[in-house]
Amino acid sequence: MADIPVRVIGASPRPTAFHWKRRAVQALTVALAVAVPVSGLLRIDPEAGAFVVVDRQIWFSDFFLMSGLWITLASSLVLLYSSAGTVFCGWVCPQNTMSEWANNLTRKLLGKRAELSMSGEAPQVAAAKNKILNWALLAGALLAAAMFFALIPLFYFYPPVMVWHFMTFQHDESLAPSLYWIYSVCVLILFVDIAVIRHFWCRFACIYKVWQHSFKTKQTLHVTYDASRAAECAKCNYCVTTCFISLDPRRTDVYDSCINCGECIDACNRLHAKQQTGGLLRFEMGERTRQGAGGLRNAAVSLLARAKWASAFTALGIALLAWGLWTYEPYHVAVDHADVQKSGTIQDYRIAITSKLYRASELSVQVQGLPPGSYRLSSEDIKLGAASRGSLTLSVDQNLKRGVYAVVITVSALDGWTGRFRIQHFSEQGQ
Fold first, then answer.
1. Best-predicted range by mean pLDDT among 142-151, 172-181, 287-296?
2. pLDDT, tens digit, for every residue of 397-417?
3. What SS3 class is residue 126?
4. Which residues sit opposite 392 in a β-bridge?
5. Which of 354, 336, 330, 357 is CA-nearest to residue 418?
6. CATH topology for the 331-427 domain
């Protein structure tokens, strides 16, 4: 009886599939890249030289908001890199998204061995698919993708209406005439990247990846190989052929080109699913020499160890960001002299008001500190368009009694905002 082999069915847990989850994240990333600027959540206004967040201009003078935003973003990314490694490259990076899509399309139209390589080897095109129509469809699809991805950055600098004018060749004074040339150059660069370079950039030329490696340690998330079952994968290179970065997932190191995509894990799991056993590859955090159970506990301990120092900066960034949002000024008021009389005494002041909101606004101006009847405003109300500027003139009577007057100029908006600007007016002409 002991010699009869016994196989336990369904004993091993169902392996996690990463392929379609990663595809969903990549698609969501592309959708968010378009939705974020189109919705007005975040973009850049080149004319004003300011960031735009939720249709509000964020100037560099908004110190707390800007510094809090960058500290929070930087510390969060450092925590991500040190814990999850290069998962950004495998799950989010648009370069890899485009490259994988181009690889799959090339195999579909030209054959499974029609791989493009920077080594100089020509792609092995299948004889049955080596047709002009297939080549034309591939070139057209790659060009359309390049035109689409080159269009996305425009949404970060121009409102959707202006981008539509650009796409439909409508005249718009806000669009520079050279923008079509810039767009054409971007399309050409992206077309060459998608058609020829692809994953070569990720493997050898990506500076961003070097930045991520600066925070990578032995405890960072990585693909681990169960060497105790090495006999089960003898003469099997399925995981190697599946890796589009051309790595051997069984021999990963701290500094390698692995992007933690999980494709090799899925491949190994599919192969061993026929024998109702789990694969030999899996994601793990902690020392690479550790094998067996305890992966979740090691991951939690490793993540908490990094969070001790990164969380302090993250908390500081969030606090500064919250304070910046609370003290955010949607309007800016500045007062300066508008005219100098022959005697050198300033009698007229220019009140400049800037709206940082991308909607129409109505504001009223009041002057305190001067006797009634001793001054005149060119207008007590002012209407501003979306993210625009306007000015009023304050004229002080030359016969005002001699002395120094502390003048407070109060500007109030219909939405409840109130701003004040203080000046010192010296009168020496009065009798």
1. 142-151
2. 888 888 899 999 999 998 889
3. coil
4. 351
5. 330
6. Immunoglobulin-like (2.60.40)
